[in-house]
Description:
- The complex is a heterodimer.
- By secondary structure, chain A is an all-beta fold.
- Chain A is built from no helices and seven strands.
- Chain A is elongated and about 55 Å long.
- Chain B has one domain: Immunoglobulin-like, CATH 2.60.40.
- Chain B is globular and about 60 Å long.
- The relative contact order of chain B is 0.24.
- At the A-B interface, strand 2, strand 4 and strand 5 of A face strand 4, strand 6 and strand 7 of B.
- Strand 5 of chain A pairs antiparallel with strand 7 of chain B.
Amino acid sequence: xxxxxxxxxxxxxxxxxxxxxxxxxxxxxxxxxxxxxxxxxxxxxxxxxxxxxxxxxxxxxxxxxxxxxxxxxxxxxxxxxxxxxxxxxxxxxxxxxxxxxxxxxxxx
Amino acid sequence: xxxxxxxxxxxxxxxxxxxxxxxxxxxxxxxxxxxxxxxxxxxxxxxxxxxxxxxxxxxxxxxxxxxxxxxxxxxxxxxxxxxxxxxxxxxxxxxxxxxxxxxxxxxxxxxxxxxxxxxxxxxxxxxxxxxxxxxxxxxxxxxxxxxxxx
Lengths: 108, 150
């Protein structure tokens, strides 16, 4: 199942040379594999373990979150605005499910 | 203790914790577990705690108190040029899996924010791998009321 992802930039339209944040929020339970359901059975681990950020097709950042990331996780990055373009955030979880979202960087 | 005195005392204590709590020294943190951390450091970096150098170039921002361990915001910022930062790792001493996340800033600035689960009150470590092979450390501690891993 595809993971739903939302990506946004703050400020939405940075000036050239200015720092801005890129935040991605995914809809994912991120089960760490240590929690039990109401009948005492362990819930199997299923968490996002790879976050990649691409800018115009080039990989610009990579994070490898562990099992102890919260449900519906947030990933925040900072970049310096240089030229306009498109950011793509790609997620992958331990079951091989993937999610992807894009956001356009426009300069003010 | 009556209610008024209790509220006053806890209020003062909380205020003091909030004022003094953010840049904590590596020693004497609440919720330390060196053995568990050591194991995770070996696994992730092949190095032990004694190889880490506490540095004020690394800024780790954690809340002093988290009501629920299931969703604790964590933020690391490194005061170095991006090219000098190879990776940023986050660890929580008391978690069953202490390594929280690793981040490789390639073209990004050395900044990473996420939300993590904490099993219980724990010391949090940000370990920064620099390009010249040094390991910088910043520590913080978060008090957790309800755990997020169990």
